[in-house]
């Protein structure tokens, strides 16, 4: 029995997996509160993650009808990029600034300039710093909260922090570390010269966690936590990783030829590579995978976060919203939405706001506006997919995950807009499943159990969710996508 945990922006999810039977026994989740403020501030209290993890853990075990004493291992997935700065007692010196926080855009621009622009970033890191990464958050804390900054003894990511709570160990792994902005994604090690530019007063040997190989366990659950959760004293905690990396494992995307696309609060598109990837666009992140390879990806910041805003604006539940989307025609009768409510990462527009374009007295209705925001979020993902170039050009299938993947209308839209077959895993919270699979791999690898075998046993595809692209709709979307790109160019010229 293995537990997978996914600490996301909106909630923490827990899944219980029986590896021997190849079954997902149960899943549960508990919500978090998101603190939002002016200038793009988005923060959370790490204590909320711990409370949600414990509540979801007990709820999932109860649903599964199993005892905590049967658990052999735990794997943790976490929202990437979040800054968890701890003092000498392991207490946060400041709330965790999240991946979607854009308050640090000025610090990011300054760091990019000091590192020699995009070319300098690529040379030093294998990717270009983005506002969402951890680096600019540390620089912001140094400038804006110097008292908190001076008390830093550890700099962790959200999944690192949960592993620290479970085991007492300050470690990380290459996949999640790739998104800090001070990690060399090609050599898979900290880039100390870059870190010195960001935080010159901090000793990296003291504050940065040790980097594990993906297959290495962090350790075992410490006794106090084991007693609290009802675990035995030999429960293994795997290296874990970022939600994108563990989501790839949870969709079986561990070899070339598949695409994982997430319709979550944010959106991601990623594909596995056995070697580092150098792309033409600075918007492509050459991240490491949490399997020992690489996982080049793009991330958009406005997917279900954008559709939820419009849905709630009209007072619609999910069923009514989906009906509105389905009842509007392709192209929403000329309505185009650039859904950048939270700024945007791909394209690089951290200070952007949302635009509803093409509204007239004839086409301004709920159905068109609901469909247009879903189309806009999906066009943004196609825009990113095209940036990945040859890595995804010949992909046979898109494995779709995230909350939006539950919508048949949206699944078909993704298939038609990308002209690629779409299917969902049976469990669409693939990051929690991927964390459980990785935990089993770390625990059983010495016995010859491979990640490929575990994915084959546990990644079950939902055949009822299969959506093949429809030629007529594929053709109909081409001018609509061109209209979206033209609007993007007109409103934010030079982003391509």
Automatic annotation (TrEMBL):
NCBIfam families: XylB. The record marks 6 as: Important for activity. Signal peptide: none annotated. Its EC number is 2.7.1.17. One of its GO terms (molecular function) is ATP binding. Keywords: ATP-binding, Carbohydrate metabolism, Kinase, Nucleotide-binding, Transferase, Xylose metabolism. Belongs to the FGGY kinase family. GO terms for biological process: D-xylose metabolic process; xylulose catabolic process. It is an enzyme of class 2 (transferase). Catalyzes the phosphorylation of D-xylulose to D-xylulose 5-phosphate. The active site is at 243 (proton acceptor). Substrate binds at residues 80-81. This is Xylulose kinase. Residues 262-441 form the Carbohydrate kinase FGGY C-terminal domain. It catalyses: D-xylulose + ATP = D-xylulose 5-phosphate + ADP + H(+). It comes from the Bacteria. Residues 1-250 form the Carbohydrate kinase FGGY N-terminal domain.
């Amino acid at each position: 029995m293995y537990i997978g945990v996914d600490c996301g922006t909106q909630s923490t999810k827990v899944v219980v997996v029986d590896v021997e039977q190849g079954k997902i026994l149960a899943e549960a989740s508990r919500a978090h509160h998101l603190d939002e403020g002016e200038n793009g501030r988005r923060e959370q209290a790490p204590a909320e993650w711990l409370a949600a993890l414990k509540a979801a853990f007990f709820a999932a075990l109860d649903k599964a009808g199993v005892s905590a004493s049967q658990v052999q291992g735990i794997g943790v997935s976490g929202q990437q990029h979040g800054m968890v700065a701890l003092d000498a007692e392991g207490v946060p010196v400041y709330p965790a600034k999240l991946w979607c926080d854009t308050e640090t855009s000025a610090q990011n621009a300054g760091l990019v300039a000091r590192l020699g622009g995009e070319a300098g970033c690529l040379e030093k890191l294998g990717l270009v710093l983005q506002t969402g990464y951890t680096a600019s958050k540390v620089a912001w804390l140094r400038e804006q909260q110097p008292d908190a900054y001076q008390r830093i003894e550890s700099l962790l990511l959200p999944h690192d922090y949960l592993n620290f709570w479970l085991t007492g160990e300050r470690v990380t792994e290459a996949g999640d570390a790739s998104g800090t902005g001070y990690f060399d994604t090609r050599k898979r090690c900290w880039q100390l010269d870059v870190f010195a530019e960001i935080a010159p007063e901090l000793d990296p040997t003291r504050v940065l966690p040790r980097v594990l190989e993906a297959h290495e366990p962090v350790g075992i659950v410490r006794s106090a936590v084991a007693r609290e959760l009802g675990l035995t004293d030999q429960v293994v905690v795997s290296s874990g990783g970022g939600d994108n990396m563990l989501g790839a494992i949870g969709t079986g995307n561990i070899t070339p030829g598949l695409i994982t696309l997430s319709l979550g609060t944010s959106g991601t598109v990623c594909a596995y590579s056995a070697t580092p990837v150098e792309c033409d666009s600075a918007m492509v992140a050459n991240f490491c995978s949490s399997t020992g390879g690489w996982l080049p990806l793009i991330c958009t910041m406005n997917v279900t976060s954008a559709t939820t805003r419009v849905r709630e604006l009209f007072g619609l539940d999910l069923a009514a919203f989906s009906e509105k989307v389905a009842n509007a025609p392709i192209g929403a009768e000329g309505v185009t939405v650039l859904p950048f409510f939270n700024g945007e990462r791909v394209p690089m527009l951290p200070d952007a706001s949302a635009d509803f374009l093409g509204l007239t007295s004839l086409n301004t209705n709920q159905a068109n506006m609901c469909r247009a925001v879903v189309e806009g979020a999906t066009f943004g993902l196609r825009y990113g997919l095209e940036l990945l170039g040859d890595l995804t050009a010949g992909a046979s299938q898109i494995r779709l995950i995230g909350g939006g993947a539950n919508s048949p209308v949206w699944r078909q839209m993704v298939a038609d807009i990308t002209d690629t077959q779409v299917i969902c895993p049976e469990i669409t919270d693939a990051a929690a499943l991927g964390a459980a699979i990785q935990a089993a791999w770390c625990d059983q690898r010495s016995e010859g159990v491979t990640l490929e075998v575990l994915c084959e046993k546990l990644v079950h595809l939902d055949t009822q969710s299969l959506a093949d692209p429809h030629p007529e709709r594929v053709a109909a979307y081409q001018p609509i996508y061109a209209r979206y790109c033209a609007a993007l160019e007109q409103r934010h010229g030079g982003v391509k």
